[in-house]
Amino acid sequence: MTAVAAVAVPQRGFALDVRAVKIVVQRDLIRTLQDRTRFVSALVQPLLFLFVLGAGLSSLTQGATGSLDLRTFMFPGILATSTLFTAIFSAVSIVWDREFGFLREMLVAPVRRSSIILGKAIGGATVATTQGVLVLALAPVVHVPLTPGLVVTLLAEVFLLSFTLTALGLAVVARIQQVQTVMGLMQVLLLPLSFLSGALYPLSNLPTWLSVAVRCNPLTYAVRPVRTAVFNHLEVSPAVRARLNPPITWGGWEVPTWLQLLLVAAIGAGLLALAVKQFQRVE
């Protein structure tokens, strides 16, 4: 009788879950480094918005921004939304993993599925924030003075936004089987999120319907803190500041910046929990 070798299967535990998160994050970073064309091409849109659209609209907005360059105003919004496509499409990569069978191998590993999803969210946020660093390097070109404190603040806010966007992408793609389906769905999702975030226009004097739509967009509550951090380092008159960076209000109550960031974090945590629940039902 042929002897059967015993196979030891590691027991699930916290250490294995942490290792799984680390491996998934490393895999996303390695994939990004190996596909530099995709990473660099994602910078085309921020550059077009900042230097082509910004320069073109400057002639129409002379006087409206005072002595402030329109591109300086646009920079915080472009910095925030530059992570949008990268973060979302980092989550889309999980559909590729499903088609090629790699996702099944990850899901049968002796780790919690939540650790795999958390690793994807952190990995996507890290990749998107790295792209944000490249956009941030353009700040002096558009007259945004960078200080160590400002850089740390902006990168922390961008990472939080990227994490939430990656969690959104994971929640959306959890049950989708084909890349063609998810690509069309993401385009429908990304454009409203971007245009209704107030990234390219001030939130003052908007039509009522647009003002309501902007306040219902979670991305708005990440763009405004980024813009506030930049405006705190600019020398502009109170009138220009009030016109270009007005506070977000709910029924006349001004929403503080810390609450806006907390709201973004809570939405990200909720979307991540939804993604984990979705992945419990697949494969």
Q: Number of helical runs?
A: 12
The spatial strand order of the largest sheet comes to 1-2
Percent strand equals under 5%
Q: Rough shape?
A: elongated
Portion in helices? 55-70%
Number of strands: 2
Q: Can you write the helix and strand succession as a string?
A: HHHHHHHHHHHEEH
* Low-confidence sequence ranges: none
Biggest sheet record: 2 strands, antiparallel
First-residue to last-residue Cα separation: 36 Å
Radius of gyration: 21 Å
Overall pLDDT, averaged?
A: 84
- Class derived from helix and strand content: mainly alpha
Number of domains: 1
Question: What secondary-structure arrangement, pairings included, does this model have?
Answer:
Elements: H1 14-34, H2 36-41, H3 44-58, H4 70-99, H5 102-107, H6 113-136, H7 148-173, H8 179-195, H9 208-215, H10 220-231, H11 238-244, E1 249-250, E2 253-254, H12 257-279
Antiparallel strand pairs: 1-2
Helix pairs in contact: 1-6, 3-4, 4-6, 4-7, 4-8, 4-10, 6-7, 6-12, 7-10, 7-12, 10-12
Provide a concise account of the structure shown:
The chain is mostly helical and 283 residues long. Helix content is 69%, strand content 1%.
Structure description:
This protein is mainly α and 283 residues long. It has one domain (17-23, 37-50, 66-279). The chain is 69% helix and 1% strand. It has 12 helices and 2 strands, in the order H-H-H-H-H-H-H-H-H-H-H-E-E-H. It has helices spanning 14-34, 36-41, 44-58, 70-99, 102-107, 113-136, 148-173, 179-195, 208-215, 220-231, 238-244, 257-279; strands at 249-250, 253-254. It has a two-stranded antiparallel ribbon. A hairpin with a 2-residue loop joins strand 1 (249-250) and strand 2 (253-254). Helix 4 (70-99) packs antiparallel against helix 6. It is elongated. The two termini are 36 Å apart.
